[in-house]
Write the structure tokens for this entry.
Amino acid sequence: MLFEKTCPYLAAAALLVGMAAARAQTPNGFAGSDKCAACHDEISKAFDKNPHHVVDTDKHLGHAGFACEACHGPGAKHTDSLSASDIRNPGKLTPDEQNKLCLSCHRNESTPVGRISGGHPEGGPGCVGCHSIHGTDHRPLVVHRAPEVNKMCSACHQAEWADFQQPHRHRLPEGAMSCVDCHNPHGSRGNEMMRTAFANEPGCFRCHGAMRGPFTYEHAPVRLEGCTDCHEAHGSENPRMLTRHEVRFVCLECHANLVTNPAPSGHQTLGGVPPAFHDLRNPRYQNCTVCHVKVHGSYVDGNLLR
Amino acid sequence: MRLLLLCLTIPGLALAQDQPAPAASSSPDQSTPAATSDFPISGSVELGYRFVPGVGGSQDVYNSTVNLSQGLRLINLDFNVAPVKSLFDHFEVQASSWGDPYNTTRVDISKDNVYRFTANYGNTAYFNFLPSYVNPAASTGAVLTESSFNTQIRTSGVELDILPGHWISPYIGWSRDSWYGSGITDFTMFPNNYPVNNSISDSTDTFRGGVQLQLKETHVVLEAGGTTFRDDQGENDNQLNNGDFTVPFLGQQLSLSSLNALYRVRGDSEYARGSIASNPLPWLSISGNFMYADPTLTTNYNSAENGTLFLPATFAFYNSGQDIATADANMPHSSGSLTVEVRPLKRMRVVEYWSTDRLHNAADSLLYEQYLETGSPFVNTSQANERLVLTNNEQQVEVFYDLLPNLTIRGGERFEWGGATVQGALLSELPLESTNLSRNTGLAGVSYRLKQTLRASADFEASSNPQDYFRTSLYNYWRLRSRAQWEFLPNWRLAGDFFEMNNSNPEPMVDLHFVSRAETASLTWLPKGGHNVNMLLEYTRSNVNSNILYLDPGTLASLPSIYLENGNTATALIELAPKAMGSFAPRFSFGGSLFTSAGSRPTDYYQPTARLSIPLAKGVLWNSEWSWYSLAERTYAFEDFRSNQLMMSLKYTHQPTR
């Protein structure tokens, strides 16, 4: 009897204890993900399928139970007022501010190492320009399908995408490759955010391993200035994606100085004049790679003939 | 008793309601629709048949550029498997274009905080038979190429990350690229060269393992790996081959009656890399990395040829020859960089960057040649030591300042210096050639952003009076890139992009003037999210103009090499989805791309396309896609082609019910 009389009081006390305990686990000013989900149901459901949902579940990450507020900041005031002005919207921050926010967790990932020296930070899109943090509109956090990656990149890099409309190109329009196969959008130690292979070799060798060498007889520009010295990687009118319409013009622009006669400035450039039996009126000599078949480097011949 | 239960459960309920309770709301079992479905797989599969009525013009060039043929295709397969709690939270498979010359597959399986496994496969057919590239007989009207490929490039790889998201996360991986097939290449023996069959077979396997350490303010990645490489290319020909030199030479008709050449190249390398990023203070970020690779190659080459051939060394004809070569090459390559970002003021950040890149290729070769001449055999043994040494350094400092909350300006300076030593060029009379790099570049940029509607940026850099490696390298140059996007009306977006690079070298023997320019404008219309109608129009005008002196090898006279390309590219995509009439909700899209250029190699390449999608039943879609490919080259009209094709497919999508 006594128990039944006191039970409501015990229940009330337990409720208060429970609420206090709950409050103790939610930082001051924070509302918690459940409260966010009450209004933002669609976002919440999409977020649950998103890799970021581990932020809500993994205590080690420091935001368990209030993942939304890890990016949007404390939301208790917003849940009371329901005013958009009472909560941070990362989508409206400047790219630099967005990056800072994302990098507060991801700052030390291996890929963002290059961000501050890469091309994207300078007025670039910021992290949310490419990543759908909530995973809404059927956009995943990280896009993997090549056609979708290409569509996203070309939305800003239109001139580059125009290059791929030329007849000879890497197979991006066909969906066989994507921009990120060659470029690291987070930054790279190389120019144009080019990926690397085998630690510090040009990323082209990831697929074209036979060109890596080291060759017994190197063709110096391959090492000194890279593949793009002769090739237009995006697209070209030339059948081998060269920078000029015929191969001889690519070769002769460099192989046209007498190395024993430096320029008047005294500076010496590399490359030499081809021997005089190369009569350019003869079609044979207009196609340098008819004979110099190992133009990327040769295992056995210094003249790159075999 | 019920009251007792109530007493015990109320605090729990309160706790559950007020605390974030993440596990309850975000458990994968509850969040993934497939979990409540009878069938544990969601996704889509699209199967189709491509009709190619025929190719007008050059089939070889069509195969070199488009290479799509008639037949059944698995256009796309994309599915997720519902989580199995003890095994995985996420299981995704994507495959595309199976049956076509370019196909890919990707598998991604993970369990939160336990592991992540990814596997990739890609296969690209590389068919290249374009007479304009290597055609010594073009002047006679013959359409052939002496450098062609009918090959496949395959890449594959797997990676396993253990404990992703934890402070320590080891990973291991393997990847492979291979190139194999056949082709035509040239066997050169002065003064003739002979097109011969070429077999290509090489592969590189890469093994790697590493660990990511995520500490409170510091992240470290350490990785070590190795590669193995093999190249077993060969050349052979067993038919009488007169080569390109079709007139008698010193009274004899040169010919090759048989050739067997085989390369056996083996290589390996070890590499290591480490990177660190740290925020030791609120106003300071430091990141750096170091990379080292040491590839080595060993070559064994054997060639045996018969015929009526000429040997310049003895100025005599020979009938049978054999070359045996062995070579070793080694190229240690180390790179490092360090970036320091300082934020002395709220609106200002200063980024200082240093990097260095050093490689040294040392190679030795031994060549044994034996020729059976009409008189006595000629034997020659030659040994060579080759060097290529490169050192590149870079130092860059940039200051970013937020002039206004939405306006950032930046300025800085980059200094690059280094040197290269390479083997002396043919006829240079020097065993080694050396040169230096010294380039000082000024940097500037501005970015502006007005809410979500307007965004613009410009980047500029310029340099003068440097030293560089080649005649065509950057000398006196400037480069400008600017971009802008403007949502001038709701759902309407206008974007523009301008790029220009100008490089000149006034040295009398070079006289280089190079200009590359591209201007792009695009218009996007996405009313109501683009569900019923959307439009994308793009136009790019590009111009490349290169003018440089070269020495005509025959006369050693200076002549101008002029390259000019004026390109126009337009792309369009318009999608229409009229209001559904009951279950009939077709979707129609059309557009494509157009490229036309004038200048040194006038080319027109058109790729219009149209697509109709009709839902047949719930989750079943009928797609019809028509495409046209057309290449026209005014200089090389024998390479023109036209093709008209139709792809009909059925797509089935399964979305589990909740």
